[in-house]
Amino acid sequence: MAEADPAPDPAPDPVPARQPRSASELFRVFNRLALQGFGGVLPIAHRELVERERWLAPQQFVELLALGQVLPGPNIINMAIIFGDRHFGWRGALAAAGGLLVVPMLIVLVLATLYQRVASHPLAAGALRGMGVVAAGLVIATALKLRHTLAANPLGRPACYAIGAATLALVGGLRWPLAWVVLGLGSVAMAAAWWRIRRAEPPK
Amino acid sequence: MTALWGLHGLGWTDLLNLLLHFMLLSMLAVGGAITAAPDMQRWLVREQGWLSDEQFTASIAIAQAAPGPNILFVALLGLHVAGAAGLVATMVGIMLPSSLVAWSVGRLGRRRSDTVAMRAFTAGLTPLTLGLLLSTGWVLTAPTRAHAGTWLLIGLTVLAMLKTRLSPLWLIAAGAVAGMLGLVG
């Protein structure tokens, strides 16, 4: 299906101020980034990669983020893999992703093992229950922050809210398998969006 | 201690099953691994009975409290299900397919992200992601849903995240205190 878009070619890449000098530098910087990221790494990623290291211009960061979000799986890991690969191939991809994961994984495993020791103690169990509630709140807050992006959605706000509500009902309420919902409702939503976009912007 | 890291009675077929299920979720997790959390709970806790609601929520809570990517909750799920082997199965499962896709797409060079297909893809999946995140929030309240304190704490957390620049760490600490005081069950 030919695209009749008359849009011009994307502007050339602005050259970032600096480049990573080695895969191990990638590991160190991404490691430092991860260790500051409590409750999520993305805001720190911007501060470290764009402002401190200046390995990415702000526009490039946004594009990398958009790419990471569109791809399945964890955004920041996808971004690290793509960024690392661009500079040092698969070694760079492993170094960047490894920097994000290795030390934090060790920390998490230590915490979990320590917790196991005190799990039967009612205070510890209570503390973790409370932390779980806050975790729920953090995730809900992330969802609510997303609602601003719906303003520009071609499906229109009512349809978006309907899809969101349907997803909540099916996955959270009825506990349908994720595959059914993403492939089923997701396909319907994407097809509807396609149709809306085409209707608003007929190909010339 | 070794009990946590051992197999917990699971066999090789179970481990393979675990790996494959998480590989599937890797490709379905639109907007990050946390959106697949309700399905992980459905499968691990409800269907297979390999994990309790408390262990499930605890895994996510610990990963959120610790520094680094939140996807590490998957490692803890694997640990609780089948020790070290479970950890490898779930982490390799959730990371490998999506990472390979990301790597190959990254190599394809700069794509036009303003094609109708890409815009429809993003536009269609964003409301879905929103619903999935809300579902995850709902699933995380499974052990504490009946208590009013839970909903109050969630409301306060949401307000704090939306209206202030308070670090999530403070909120998590407040949650720990509230939990110890018995406010959420």
Low-confidence stretches of chain B: none
- The whole-number mean of residue pLDDT values of chain A reads 87
Mean pLDDT reading of chain B: 90
Whole-number count of domains of chain A: 2
Order of helices and strands of chain B: HHHHHHHH
Tell me briefly what this model is.
Chain A has seven helices and no strands. With 204 residues, chain A is an all-alpha fold.
Your description of this structure?
The complex is a heterodimer of chains A (204) and B (185). Chain A is mainly alpha-helical and 204 residues long. Helix content of chain A is 72%, strand content 0%. Chain A has two domains: 15-123, no CATH class; 130-204, no CATH class. Mean pLDDT of chain A is 87; it is low at 1-9. Chain B is mostly helical and 185 residues long. Chain B contains eight helices and no strands. The model of chain B has no long low-confidence stretch (mean pLDDT 90).
Write the layout of secondary structure elements.
The complex is a heterodimer of chains A (204) and B (185).
Chain A lengths: L22 H14 L5 H11 L5 H13 L4 H44 L3 H25 L10 H17 L4 H23 L4
Helix pairs in contact in A: 1-2, 1-4, 3-4, 6-7
Chain B lengths: L1 H4 L6 H17 L8 H11 L5 H13 L7 H35 L8 H25 L7 H16 L4 H13 L5
Helix pairs in contact in B: 2-5, 4-5, 7-8
Keywords:
heterodimer; A: 204 residues; mainly alpha; 2 domains; 7 helices; flat; disordered N terminus; B: 185 residues; 0% strand; globular
